[in-house]
Design brief:
Layout: H1 2-11, E1 22-23, H2 33-47, H3 51-65, H4 95-108, H5 115-129, E2 138-139, H6 161-170, H7 175-181, E3 189-191, H8 196-200, H9 214-223, H10 227-230, E4 237-239, H11 253-259, H12 266-270, H13 275-286, H14 288-302
Helix pairs in contact: 1-13, 2-4, 2-5, 3-5, 7-14, 11-13, 13-14
Length: about 325
């Protein structure tokens, strides 16, 4: 009965649509828009398989602050420090992919497709290229004209599940969304600085986190030496899903690592220690397609957070700066 309850909870996790978005928004004004996005993205992924993880993170950071308005793409100017300059964004990558897609779209239908939609579409296709389900993404987002470092906020990887949930609820996402979207950590890389305390000085104890698998601890200490604590500028990258055979595949391996005490980030590992999240994690391990289905639904919800539509915002001609 408990397992059935969790399944029903997942399937009942409804998507709160933004009213002015619609499927195939550009079908008349730029009918090849989604084809162009997918083609340019595929070209980049062939050269760098980490691109999907980079775009997932870029999209998440964009949506979580002021909404999915492409403001994370804007460069700083002499009189403004932009969102991308906030410390959690120093390791963001993938901006050049969005730039290339925008360039191709401007050749075919200038001034039509927003940067916010390009990022959302490229992220959707990144999920599919990584083995997740492709999902029907409504478009029609407009671009924001404000990007301030002072506005940026993202949940820390070292907070508790309840603290992270409060941040997610602020943008109308729930515990299922939180647990599911953390599954994106099955792909991509992570800097040692995000978890180095778990290896050497967890919670100021001078000891490693006793909840981390000992074999994983030893491997991570080899790749993230204690000297990283003193010189964080020398901060190696490691796979988020360390030790798995599918580091670029969006699958249930992340959740298996959570159950085996092999999650790298503190927040990720805590999913095993709360009653509801543990049950969700276990269901995803047993039913990978349930995870993929719910991941699509949660991504749709994320992608419609505080979007600009209609005459709000603008359609930026260059994703890195607002129009003159």
């Amino acid at each position: 009965m408990a397992a059935l309850t969790i399944v029903l909870l997942l399937l009942a996790n409804s998507v709160a649509f933004a009213s002015s978005l619609e499927l195939h928004f550009y079908r008349k004004t730029c009918p090849k828009a989604e084809i162009i996005v997918r083609a340019v993205l595929h070209r980049h992924i062939q050269q760098d398989p980490s691109i999907p993880a980079r775009l997932l993170r870029l999209h998440f950071h964009d949506c979580f602050t002021t909404g999915c308005d492409g403001s994370i793409l804007i460069d700083s100017t002499d009189d403004n420090i932009a969102e991308k300059e906030a410390p959690p964004n120093f390791s963001l990558r993938g901006f050049e992919v969005i730039d290339d897609i925008k360039t191709e779209l401007e050749k075919v239908c200038p001034g039509i497709v927003s940067c916010a939609d390009i990022l959302a579409l490229a992220t959707r296709d990144s999920v599919a290229f990584s083995g997740g389900f492709s999902y029907a993404l409504r478009t029609g987002r407009r671009d924001g004209t404000v990007s301030r470092m002072a506005d940026f906020h993202i949940p820390s990887p070292s907070i508790t599940v309840s603290q992270a949930l409060a941040d997610f609820q602020r943008i109308k996402l729930d515990l299922v969304d939180l647990t599911t979207l953390l599954g994106a950590h099955s792909i991509g890389f992570c800097h040692c600085g995000f978890f180095i305390d778990r290896l050497y000085n967890f919670n100021g104890t001078g000891l490693p986190d006793h909840e981390m698998d000992s074999n994983l601890l030893n491997r991570l200490r080899q790749k993230c030496p204690a000297s990283t604590l003193q010189n964080i500028s020398i901060d190696p990258n490691i796979f988020m899903n360390e030790g798995t055979l599918t580091p670029f595949k969006l699958d249930q391996s992340f959740f298996q690592n959570v159950l085996n005490a092999k999650a790298i980030l503190q927040l990720d590992q805590q999913l095993a220690f709360t009653n509801v999240t543990n049950k969700i994690v276990s269901r995803y391990v047993d039913r990978p397609n349930l995870f993929r289905k719910q991941f699509s639904q949660s991504m749709i919800k994320l992608g419609e957070v505080n979007v600009l539509t209609g005459k709000e915002g603008e359609i930026r001609l260059n994703c890195r700066r607002v129009n003159k």
